[in-house]
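Supplementary notes for students who missed Thursday's class. We covered one full example, reproduced here. Read the sequence, then the structure, then the short commentary at the end.
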Amino acid sequence: MDYKNLLSCDLNEFIFAGGLMRQTQFLSFLLLGLLAACSALTLQPANFAWPIESVLPVDESGTVSDERNSFSFDTKSLFFEEFNDSSAYMEKEIRILRDVNGFYFMTANKFKNVYVFKMNHGAMVLDSKIFISEFGVKNPALNQREPYVELIDGDKSLFLTNTGIDRNKR
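Structure (token representation):
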């Protein structure tokens, strides 16, 4: 029996197996590094709420803008959705409040609904429409009552989330 060939064969297999193990470890670390680089940076916790509502006059072109929070948007389609009237925005005010999750709650005098919007690629997209009253709200106010947005209409108070009215909260 040739022990020299047997020894050299085992030594080659040992070197090859060790190299393969190093290659496997290297590829594993490389893959983990790539996966970590692809994951989104997340800053938590985050609170997007505004402490008080903004009451914004609608200008003659149907736009509202808020210098304090640095945003503006066109309201014509919102007023058309509520009143089916393309000029319903004239000389009106929008009440808007942003909740802790970043949703924008909007209503105005005589609105039957509170509209909840979210931001999406430079646009405000309707997330939900919360029915309040067949007669419309009179002199509404929005307050931050974390985790809710409180809608006050006269002596009535409702607690809202982006999905609707929380009937359990009184």
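Commentary. The two ends are 92 Å apart (CA to CA). Residues 54-165 form one domain. If anything here is unclear, bring it to office hours.
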